[in-house]
Amino acid sequence: QVQLVESGGGLVQSGGSLRLSCAASGTVEDINAMGWYRKVPGKLRELVAAITSGGTTNYAHFVEGRFTITRDSAKNMAYLQMNSLRPEDTAVYYCTADRPASSPIASTRYWGQGTQVTVSS
Questions:
Q1: What pLDDT, in 10s, does the model give residues 55-65?
Q2: How far is C-alpha 82 from the geometric centre of its chain's CA atoms?
Q3: Are 85 and 16 in contact (CB under 8 A)?
Q4: Which SS3 state, helix, strand or coil, does residue 110 take?
Q5: Structural contact between residues 75 and 11, judged by C-beta atoms closer than 8 angstroms
Q6: How many C-beta neighbours within 10 Å does residue 74 have?
Q7: What confidence tens digit (pLDDT) does each residue in 106-119 have?
Q8: Cα–Cα distances in Å, from 30 out to 2, 24, 76?
Q9: What is the rounded distance in angstroms from the CA atom of residue 5 to the CA atom of residue 73?
Q10: Which of 25, 22, 26 is nearest to 36 (CA)?
């Protein structure tokens, strides 16, 4: 089992930057991908970015080169560097971690508690 704790959220003006951190603990040795999702009230949660154990990254279209996901496996940490923030980026951001499941094509998804990011105009 994996526990994830996000930090680094807060208030920032439009155009500003913020770095989110995610600390993983528990059964961390077999974590595959880690990632970031975000949730706005009334809307479905959406993928922001993901990174595999091998360093392959995947970004949502709305990032447009503004965000960068990184990972420090030795520290069991994942990060999301967010630049050129916009008001529409306001959401609760959640860290995720995937571990292998019984099925060879399935994984168990673990979620953090979320951290609020608010971007003002």
A1: 999 999 999 79
A2: 11
A3: yes
A4: strand
A5: no
A6: 6
A7: 889 999 999 999 99
A8: 10, 12, 11
A9: 15
A10: 22
